[in-house]
Amino acid sequence: MGGGSVSECKEFLFKVLVIGELGVGKTSIIKRYVHQLFSQHYRATIGVDFALKVINWDSKTLVRLQLWDIAGQERFGNMTRVYYKEAVGAFVVFDVTRGSTFEAVSKWKHDLDSKVKLANGGPIPSVLLANKCDQKKEGSNNMALMDNFCKEAGFLGWFETSAKRYDPFGSQILCYEGD
């Protein structure tokens, strides 16, 4: 055998849930992130759908993100426990133009925390997404209040997002100050 070395590529598969009320833009966020597509006309997800995003993390690491799009009307269904199984993270999404979807965030977080745990028994990491920020009214989100809400509710943090306004060069779905 020669002196050449074979470098091994590490591969990881992570199941990440995307949950929230009906019509908050979960499917739009996933389609934009995975396929760089946006449409204003999506039908409501029935049950569950999922998409795969493959990320070349570095020259020796491949990450496969399995993004599970859970239907907004599924929160109180018996199927969420099955859908949530083996997830390692979650995005809870609300629509900044519809206050009722923010009010439902705590219920979604409680449902998530009661049905799926990490191997150590703790809750899976979750991030809150304030979607449709391209449509929000000025001053509609108080950052300090949102930071405090996330801390109290057990979220790692929160981001304003928009599947409609998208930076294809940076693969970002975030809205920045001054947009």
Strands across the major sheet, in which order? 2-3-1-4-5-6
Shape: globular
Note poorly predicted spans.
Answer: 167-179
The separation of the N and C termini measures 59 Å
Can you give the mean pLDDT? 83
H/E element sequence = EHEEHEHHEHE
Helix proportion range:
10-25%
| Rg over C-alpha atoms, rounded to the nearest angstrom | 18 Å
Instruction: Characterize the main sheet.
Output: 6 strands, mixed
Structural class per helix/strand content?
alpha/beta
Number of beta-strand segments = 6
How many helices does DSSP assign?
5
The percentage of residues in β strands lies in: 25-35%
Task: Please give a structural write-up.
It is built from 5 helices and 6 strands; from the N terminus they run βαββαβααβαβ. The chain has helices at residues 26-35, 80-84, 99-103, 105-115, 143-153; strands at residues 10-20, 48-58, 61-70, 89-95, 126-131, 158-160. Strands 2-3-1-4-5-6 form a 6-stranded mixed sheet, sandwiched between helices. Helix 5 links the parallel strand 5 and strand 6. The longest helix is centred in the middle third of the chain and has 11 residues, at 105-115. The termini are far apart.
